[in-house]
Amino acid sequence: MRRLLILLLCATPCWARAERLFTFEDMMSLKRVGEPVVSPDGKWVLFSAVDVDLAANKKTPHIWVAPTSGGKEREIILDQDADRPRWAPDGRRFAFLSNKESGSQIWIADFDGGVGSVTGVHRLTSIASEAQGELWSPDGKNILFVSNVYPECVEEDCNARKIEESSHSMVKAMVFDRLLYRHWNSYQEGKRSHLLVVSAEGGPSRDLTPGDYDAPVFSLGGQDNYAFSPDGQEICYTSNHDKVEAISTNNDLWIVSVNGGEAKNITVENKASDSTPLYSPDGNYIAYRAQARPGYESDRFRLRLYDRKAGGKKDLTDGFEQWAGSFIWAPDSKTIYFSSEHKRHALIYAVDITTAARRTLVGGYNDDVTITPDGKTLVFSRVSMKAPNEIYAAKAAGEGCPARTGDVDPGKASCSLNKDWPLTQINQERLSQIILSDAEPFWFKGALGDEVEGSLVKPPNFDGSKKYPVKFLIHGGPQGAWGDDWSYRWNPELFAANGYVVVMINFHGSTGYGQKFIDAIQSDWGGAPYEDLMAGLDYAEQHYPYIDKDRECALGASYGGYMANWILGHSDRFQCIVSHDGMFNSTSAWGTTEELWFNEWEFRGTPYNNRPLYDQWSPHLSATKFKTPTLVIHGQLDYRLDVSEGFQLFTTLQRLGVPSKMLYFPDEGHWVLKPQNSRLWYKTVNDWVDQWVRR
Distances from the Cα of 166 to the Cαs of 129, 172, 174, 214, 545, in angstroms? Predict the structure, then answer.
C-alpha cells in the first residue's frame, strides 16, 4: 500500500529532495534557455538552450521544441550546434544559425508540425563575412541577416577577398582616423555591421544598408534593431549617422525597400536614441523604443508609435515612469504587450494604442515577450533568484491591474494579475536537488530622504542562532539593479552557498524605481549611492542579528568595481574588498574608454572642461587612505573600462603595502565568459574572501 501511494504521488515528475549545497559545477551544468519563438499555427515553441562543457571549455547552443498545449520539451537538432531559431511563415521550416561549416551561417530545417520534429537540415549561406541575426520575411521569399562587412565593398567577392588578404597578412597594424575604433571587446578593423538579404531558396546576398555606418547599431542583446514590413517589401532598422559616434546616442530609425535604394530617416527630429522597430500586423504603424535626452544612454525608454501614412508619432507610455522593455503587437494591431522593470521584478503590461490606457497583466521577472497567432496567449521567458531562464505562458486577455506610474496598483478589490504556467522545466530536476534560498527584500531610509530597497540571501541550512559572515555585493551599471533574477557571472546563491549571508542594495541610480531615482546618481557617483550602501548595510546589521558585522567583505564589478575602489578610500568597515573592472582614475578612464558619451554625461563634460567634477569622484585621489586587503580583477579585452584601470589600482596598493592580489585575464573583456575562466574567477574570489573574513 505504501509503494502504491508513492507511485500515485509521483504521477507527475517526482524530483529528489533538495539536500546538497550549490556548486560551481552545478551552475555550469544548467542549460541556458533562450528566447521563445511561437510557430505560425500556435502549436509549438522553439528556443535555443546552451550547454556548457567545462572539460572542453566550450559553450554550445542547441535547438529545442515544446508544445504550447503542455508537455515535455525536447532537443530536435542533435548533430550540430544550432542557435536563434526563426519560423518560416508557412511553419514547415525554420532558419537557425550554426558554426558547423564556414563559421556562423544560416541553415534551414524542415519541420513536421504533426509530431514536432525536424526531418532534414541544409545550409543556406556561405558568406565569408558570416551571418548573424537572421529574420524571415513575412511573404516567405527572403531572409534578412546581419554581417560585418567592409563598407567599400558592394559584392560578396570583394568582402571575401579582403577577409582572405587580412587573415594571411603578416602586418597586423591598424590605422584609425576617427573615434570608436574599438568597441566593447573588439577592434572595428575597418568593418561595419550591415543588413543583407538573401533569397530563401539560396543564392547571392544583397546589401540593403550600404555606406560607412553601422546598420543596425551595436547591441548587447535583446530585441532586434530591424524588422520587416508585413508585406515583406520594406525593412526598418536602427543606424547612427552622427559624425562622432563615440559621443552620440543618436540612433535613428531608417526605412528602405527590400529591393534596395535610398533609405529614409523617420526619426530625424529626435537627437536621442530610437531603436527596436516593429511593424504592426496591419502595416499601419511602427512601434519602437525611444529616449528623449541626447547623450544619455540611461534615459527612460519610452514606447512610441509611428503612423506610416500620416507620419505622426505618439508616446504610448507618457506618465509611465519605468522603462519599456521587449514588446510585441497583438495580432489585431490594437494592443502592444511589453515588459518593464518594477522594483525587483520585470512585469508584463498591455497598452491600448488608441487610448494609451495601460494595465499590468503578469508578475514575476519576465522578458522576451511574444504572443500566439490567435492573440490569446502570451509566451515569455522568466527567471528568478533560484532558477535560470525557463519559458512561461499566460492568458493575454483580462483586466489585470491599473498601471498608472509603473506600480502595481490594485485600484479595486477585484484586481488580479493573470495566472501563468511553465511551458518548459528544463532545469527543474537538477535544481530540485540543490539547497537554494529566496531573496528576502527589505526597505530603509536612504540618501535624499528616499526609501531604498535591499535584499538578503541566507546561506544553506541556515541557523538563526549562529553568526554568519557577509558578502556585500555592489551592482554595476550604475543604471542596473539586483532583481529577483538569475546571474551566471555574479550569482548570489553561489556566493551564499559556502556559509555567507549575501546583502545587496539598489542604491540611487538603480533601475526599476522611476527615472528620477536613476538620474540621482549623475554627477554624484560617490555621494548618494555610497550613502545608500552604508545605510543599507547598517540596517541589515541592526535588523538581522545573525549577521556578524566584524566579518564583512565588499565585492563589485564595473560601477560596483568603482564603488569598491571608492570604499577603499572612505571606509575601514570591511575586512576585504574585491574590485572587478572598476574605474580607478576618472581622467584616464575617460581617455581609454570607447563610449565617451557615458563618461561625458555622468561627469558633465570632459576632464579638460570640468576637471573639478572628475577629481571630486575619482577614487585614486584618496589612495593614501587605502588599508583594506583588496583583490583586483581585470580583463585585457575590456574596452569599456580599460585594463590600465586595474593595473593602476594594483600598482597603487602594492606601493602602499596594502595586502593585495591581481587576477588578470588576457582573453576576457568586461565580463568573464569562458567556462574555465569563470571557474577560476569564482574560486579566486571566494578564496580571497575566506582568507580575510572566515576565521
Answer: 12, 8, 11, 21, 63
- Given a contact cutoff of 8 angstroms between Cβ atoms, the answer to whether 470 and 500 are in contact is yes
Q: Give the integer Cα–Cα distance in Å for 6 and 249.
A: 60
User: Rounded distance, CA 150 to CA 354, Å?
Assistant: 44
- DSSP state, residue 434: B
Reported as a single tens digit per residue, the pLDDT across 523-579 is 999 999 999 999 999 999 999 999 999 999 999 999 999 999 999 999 999 999 999
pLDDT digit string (tens) for 264-307?
A: 999 999 999 999 999 999 999 999 999 999 999 999 999 999 99
Q: Which residues contact 601 (CB under 8 A, 6 or more apart)?
A: 295, 296, 297, 522
Q: Find out whether the peptide bond into 204 is cis, omega within 30 degrees of 0.
A: no
What confidence tens digit (pLDDT) does each residue in 127-139 have?
999 999 999 999 9
What's the N-to-C CA distance of the chain in angstroms?
Answer: 51
Q: What single-letter DSSP state applies at residue 142?
A: E
Q: C-alpha grid cell for residue 511?
A: 533601475
Judge residue 132's burial from the number of C-beta atoms within 10 Å of its C-beta, 0-12 exposed, 13-18 middle, 19 or more buried. Answer: middle
Q: State the Cα–Cα distance between residues 635 and 669, nearest whole angstrom.
A: 5
629 preceded by a cis bond (ω within 30 of 0): no
Using one digit for the tens of pLDDT, what is the confidence trace for 114-129?
999 999 999 999 999 9
Distance of CA 509 to the CA centre of its chain: 17
Q: Is the pLDDT of residue 433 over 60?
A: yes
Q: How far apart are CA 599 and CA 614, in angstroms?
A: 9
Strand partners, 564: none
Nearest to 63 by CA among 53, 78, 52: 78
* Ordered structural domains, the chain, with CATH: 127-153+187-315 (2.140.10.30), 435-693 (3.40.50.1820)
CA distance 243 to 241: 6
Count CB-CB contacts under 10 A for residue 314. Answer: 15
Residue 617 is given by DSSP the state T
Task: State residue 6's pLDDT score.
Answer: 34
CA distance 337 to 369: 7
Is beta strand 501-506 parallel, antiparallel or unpaired with respect to 451-457? antiparallel
What does pTM read for this prediction?
0.95
**Hey, which bits of 527-602 come out as E strands?**
547-557, 576-580
Classify strands 302-307 and 313-315 as parallel, antiparallel or unpaired: antiparallel
Q: How far apart are CA 558 and CA 578, in angstroms?
A: 11
b/e burial code for range 416-435 (CB count within 10 A of at least 16 → b): ebbebeebbbbbeeebbebb
Q: Report residue 78's pLDDT band, with 50, 70 and 90 as the boundaries.
A: confident
| pLDDT of 2 strictly over 90 | no
Mean pLDDT of 666-676: 98
Look up residue 479 and give its three cell numbers: 543604471
